[in-house]
Amino acid sequence: MVLITRTDALNRQIIHRSKIFKALLLGIASLVVPVLIIVIDPIHTIVNYNLRLGKGSMLYNILVNEFKAAQLSIYIFNITNGDRFLAGQDQKIKVEEVGPFVFQEYHWYENVEVTEDGLEMSMDPKYRADFVAEKSIAHPKDMNLTLPNLPLLSATSIFSNYPYFIQFMFSSMAASLNSKVIINTDVHNYLWGIKDPLITMCNNLAPGLVYFDSVGLLDRLYDNQSDYKIVVKASKEERFKIKYVNKYVHLQKGGIEDVEESQQNFTNTYEGLGYPPDMAPGLPINLYRMGICKTFDMEYNRTKTMEYGGEGLVYTFNNRTFQTMRNPISGKMYHDGLMDISTCYYGLPFVVSVSHYLDADPELLNYVEGMKPDRDLYINEIVIDRRVGVTFNTKMNLQLSMVLDDLSYYGETKQFSNLVVPLVRVEVDQPRMSDGTMLVFYLVYKIAPPAILITEIILCIVGLSLLAYAAKSMYVNCTLNSQGMVFETSRNKKMLTEKLSDVPLITDRRRSITYEF
């Protein structure tokens, strides 16, 4: 039997109760923390915070600095029977693809401003493209091809809807310049601008018809003579949804510079850089591209598991994207599968379709030889990370063609009357994310979830163990209080006496006896 004083017994009892209280608190906290982790999802919360559209965020810093955008692989349709076709010996134009000529796009935004309430953001989009020699078959300046004369065919088609006397004046001017309908030129001029005095004459004949002095396919796409201001929604639920786009065209009229302003309003439209987080499959999406004033209507196709473990939503072109349209100048109906962009190119008779007229009106294949529609080869889809709301992959195959009206009023171009002439095919590929970005995705989807799960399990085990320890300690205390024995010693007394005491130290239900030393 161990003899302790009453004071020591009380002190030990107090310390024991303190340990029990601490164990209870730590046990409850250890069980509450896993619940909070499940409810709050800290990793997802941190990612969304950094991807918010607000000053100082990671996404904001990406927007204001130049970053790699899409990679364009361009294939030119080279005419192989130009002389025979113009002579009437061949009924169809024969073409072959030559390429790729690869260009890397770079994208950034200037004058990025967020409203005080944080619900909208305005910015001026900027683009540039660099030639990628190592992925191309040759430098565009070093390769000459046989191609349609874009300025001549465009102008001839536009004036086909004008009165006869204007057509006569145009034909006379074109003949005086000895303009050929099929030319041999280098790819660089074809893409970035063929300077032709015919364009200047068109402006003299019909002032305000065009504001540029050259016609090039990429030159018109990037449209460096115009400025844009895009306004998007900045809230989490509508992040990057375009509200409207203002376009400012700088015109030179004589010695006076003028600015022509226009505005486009959009519904469920995005530029493709980002989307709202936690997207629901089937969210309506339209894609907008600067330089093309039309949107691509997308539809949800399927869900796929990404290589980093995330859930990707796959969208493809909706049939409405290339539905039958009417030529805004002539009023004629286009073939099914062609999307008019002439209003974006100031009357130039350009249309966009899926490469090689895939899923378009089969009659389009009767105009030209060399088209080979292939669904497995010409893929069009975008993959969006559902939780984070960023584009992981983009793959598009588009074709630019020229729809020509009745050109018989000018002898040089009459063989091209009422034809749809393919010009270029473009593969659009979003580059793979940087290693640093991919590491973040792997952390978010593959490393963090099991680490958090293990942490939750450990916390639950610790919490339950602490609660069990506290419960056991409380039970032991209760048992000792009901059956304990305490001896008290007195340091002031040298003799031991034995007498009955009024304060019982040993208690049972029948009597109380105190031993005092």
Report on the structure:
This protein has two domains: 101 residues; 387 residues, no CATH class. It has ten helices and 22 strands. The strands form four sheets. The protein has a 16-stranded mixed sheet that branches. A two-stranded antiparallel sheet has the order 4-5. Strands 6-7 form a two-stranded antiparallel ribbon. A hairpin with a 2-residue loop joins strand 12 and strand 13. It starts with 5 loop residues before the first helix and ends with a strand. The chain has 517 residues and is of the alpha+beta class. Helix 1 runs antiparallel to helix 10 and helix 6 packs antiparallel against helix 8. It is elongated.
Give descriptors for this structure.
517 residues; 2 domains; 16-stranded mixed beta sheet; 31% strand; alpha+beta; two-stranded antiparallel sheet
User: What average pLDDT do the residues reach?
Assistant: 80
How many separate domains? Answer: 2
- Spans of at least 5 consecutive residues whose pLDDT stays below 50 are 485-517
Which sheet architecture does the biggest sheet show? 16 strands, mixed
Shape estimate: elongated
Strand content: 25-35%
SS element count, helices: 10
Q: How many extended strands?
A: 22
Which structural class is indicated by helix and strand composition? alpha+beta
